[in-house]
Amino acid sequence: MNATLLQTPLSPFQRATTSADHKLLSLLRDRKTEEAWNTYTNSTHLPNPTCLSRLVSQLSYQNTLSSLTRAQSIVTRLRNERQLHRLDANCLGLLAVAASKAGHTLYAASLLRSMLRSGYLPHVKAWTAVVARLASSPDGDGPAEALRLFRSVTRRLRRLPDPGMAAASQPDTAAVNAALNACANLGDAAAFLQVLDEMPQFNVEPDALSYNTMMKLCVRVGRKDLLVFVLERVLQLGIPLCVTTLQSLVSAYVEFGDLETAEKLVQAMREQRRDICRVLRDLYAPNTRTYTTLMKGYMNAGRVSDTVRMLEAMRRQDDKASHPDHVSYTTVVSALVKIGSMERARQVLAEMTRIGVPANLITYNVLLKGYCQQLQIDKARELLKEMVDDAGIQPDVVSYNILIDGCILVDDSAGALSFFNEMRARGIAPTKISYTTLMKAFAYSGQPKLAHRVFSEMDNDPRVKVDLIAWNMLVEGYCRLGFVEEAKKVIQKMKESGLHPDVGTYGSLANGIALARKPGEALLLWNEVKERCEVGKQEGKCDSSVPPLKPDEGLLDTLADICVRAAFFRKALEIVACMEENGIPPNKTKFTRIYVEMHSRMFTSKHASRARQDRRVERKRAAEAFKFWLGLPNSYYDGSEWRLEPLEGYGTASDSV
């Protein structure tokens, strides 16, 4: 029988669907991505997996904000319809890379984890790009997230019966170096060594960059003594030595503040000496980067004149490879901005333009920060306009974060909001710092509800993760107005989200309690703080999910102040004992003044009933003990009497819990 007779004829809908898919695939093959997107959006059915994967790939490859948004919308639609399996690993990997480049690193990491859960293994280039971005992220969670992602991928690879099944996903040296960079930025030496030890499992060997990163780790953990051994190890392993390694060495000594050693290294390179580390066999002359690293050391040490002199010396070098570049000039600009010399900094910028060394975005951001620190927001606005219109340099999220923070310094919350909205209008995605800085603007200007609205928007933004800093800023906003109940509700939600208050949270709440004059709340807060401090003392002896707390002077002094004013002397003594235990000297002069001004007539009434006098016994003991601690006359000294005339208008309170 003819096979064609056994085939089920296609329905009109199926024929239309097949035709539409053919049309879409043809557009994609011709790289007509815009027309393909329009066809997809106008289609009444979901295209086949080949079309969807190609469309997501091409949109991701365009690397524009609009194309990325389109690609993400396809993924969101498929996820909602439980059809994510229609996309192949290649297109999802490309989307992760595009999202990472656009600054949406959390989305990219989430996408890769989703792939792993679905059984996909992303290409090593894709997951390495995301790990590298996270590892270098200024966000404190970035390096930790990078390490978690690296371990998720490598753990999955180890489970495979045959590594050849996923050869394209196996980590290479670049992938491992990204993980090592994350460890270095975290200052986690144990994790660094673990990653280094695992390299042979994947047939990967460390290179010069691996050991350059190890030098960075030495700086993070304060092991200057290990730097020379790292260099010796590089030479022992026969790793081709590059000038970057020596530059990393100079940079490390600069970070340690050991400018003398850094200078000796640079001088040895200039003299082409062979005895660096006693085994250095190749010759290296210092270049622009080496000199600039030393300049940064001078700048960090506040040696502005040496920074400027180094620039002059670089100009006079015969070797063009040692002439100053935009980084060298930016270092000088930074040094001048640091001392508030904005006029000289602008002269350096003008000179850069004159000699044909164009300033970059970092140069302008340094100048923007300088004007903001000098409270010259109008000049910062002018510079922003000059940067865009004259230099053709577009601001980034760092530029706007600087400007928003500058508005806070001049108490201009409206200006901060204006910059925030302008940033988003330019298609620049806000970061954690953007949100928390805007929250700070509203919190400090007495507008906690607006701060809460910004917090809610941050919470709904999938590109960022609400952290303790954001929660604390919200608490601070309410406490600055004495809205204790609202602040307590925020803290409760913080705990429910899995975060625990830190000393900053409690410090803000204590200040709010003092402002609201609610001493009873101070007792409750002290009990919680005391419990958290006890966790630290019992570390290793009890299984507690709550981390220990290390109280600071601001928190304990505020609580003690509230308790002394409210005549909670027993609690005040507990708090000052905690201060002394933590090496914080209590302000006895202040507490003595408060006691004399507010409580000098306590327990002096001769007309109180016997029952009332009996109830006062415990409180009087606490008061006498507190006077003893202050060094004032008290019943401990031969029963001597102490009387002072009270100030009018002050009452007393019981020392109850």
Q: Would you give an account of this structure?
A:
InterPro entries: At1g68980-like_TPR (IPR057440), PPR_rpt (IPR002885), TPR-like_helical_dom_sf (IPR011990). Pfam families: PPR, PPR_1, PPR_2, TPR_At1g68980. Keywords: Repeat. Belongs to the PPR family. P subfamily. This is At1g68980-like TPR repeats domain-containing protein. By secondary structure, this protein is an all-alpha fold. Among the domains are: about 210-285, no CATH class; about 555-600 and about 610-630, no CATH class. The protein is built from 32 helices and no strands. It has helices at about 10-30, 35-40, 50-60, 65-80, 90-100, 105-115, 125-135, 140-160, 175-185, 190-200, 210-220, 225-235, 245-255, 260-270, 290-300, 305-315, 325-340, 340-355, 360-375, 375-390, 395-410, 415-425, 430-445, 450-460, 470-480, 485-495, 505-515, 520-535, 555-565, 570-580, 590-600, 610-630. Helix 5 packs antiparallel against helix 6. The termini are far apart. The model is unreliable at about 1-5, about 280-285 and about 640-655 (pLDDT under 50).
Short précis:
The chain has 657 residues and is an all-alpha fold.
Task: Throw out a few tags for this protein.
657 residues, 32 helices, 66% helix, disordered N terminus, At1g68980-like_TPR, PPR_rpt, repeat, At1g68980-like TPR repeats domain-containing protein, TPR-like_helical_dom_sf
- Provide the low-confidence segments as ranges: 1-6, 278-283, 638-657
The best one-word shape is globular
Outline the biggest β-sheet.
none
Number of helices: 32
Domain At1g68980-like TPR repeats: 17-136
Family: Belongs to the PPR family. P subfamily.
InterPro entries: At1g68980-like_TPR (IPR057440), PPR_rpt (IPR002885), TPR-like_helical_dom_sf (IPR011990)
Organism: Cajanus cajan
